[in-house]
């Protein structure tokens, strides 16, 4: 993310507000990852890339877009409780003609119009039974068919996030 945006998050996500809150014990570990000050609110990234969609696929040179966005979506947005919607990604944004530009604006408008009805990314909640506390590791029986960041999702297709 741009440095100015990272700085904004660092100033807004103050200790005692967005992190460092809640009980820390053998059964709970703070209010985060599905709980917290932003619980019940929604967030969605709007991202542009210069590369093609294929460049951001499982076998693409840049890796899957959902893996690249995981630190922001999971570590910054889901951490204090946001319901994170799948991102709206505009691939190959450097090659926009007027027709594609208008189509993209219409598609973004439709996503925003339906944001309150859209299903959020199914990240696993920290304190609701998926993780061992206080170790904060995923229970061994969960995600056996997955690797990497997909382990921390509980939906069927953890690799199909791009909008």
What does this structure look like?
The chain is an alpha/beta fold. The chain has one domain: 3-Layer(aba) Sandwich (Rossmann fold), CATH 3.40.50. The chain has 4 helices and 6 strands. 19% of the residues are buried. The model is unreliable at 158-163 (pLDDT under 50).
Secondary structure topology:
Elements: H1 3-12, E1 42-43, E2 46-48, H2 65-78, E3 83-84, E4 88-90, H3 98-113, H4 126-130, E5 131-132, E6 137-138
Parallel strand pairs: 1-3, 2-4
Antiparallel strand pairs: 5-6
Short description:
By secondary structure, this protein is an alpha/beta fold.
Features:
two-stranded parallel ribbon; disordered C terminus; 163 residues; single chain; Rossmann fold; 4 helices
CATH topology call: Rossmann fold
For CATH, the homologous superfamily is named as Flavodoxin domain
Largest sheet: 2 strands, parallel
Give the fraction of residues assigned to helices.
25-40%
Question: Which geometry do the CA atoms define?
Answer: globular
Percent range for β-strand residues: 5-15%
* Structural class by secondary-structure content: alpha/beta
**Tally of DSSP β-strands:** 6
How would you write the strand order of the largest sheet?
Answer: 1-3
CATH class equals Alpha Beta
Poorly predicted tracts of residues: 158-163
Assembly state (oligomeric): single chain
Number of helices: 4
Question: What is the domain tally?
Answer: 1
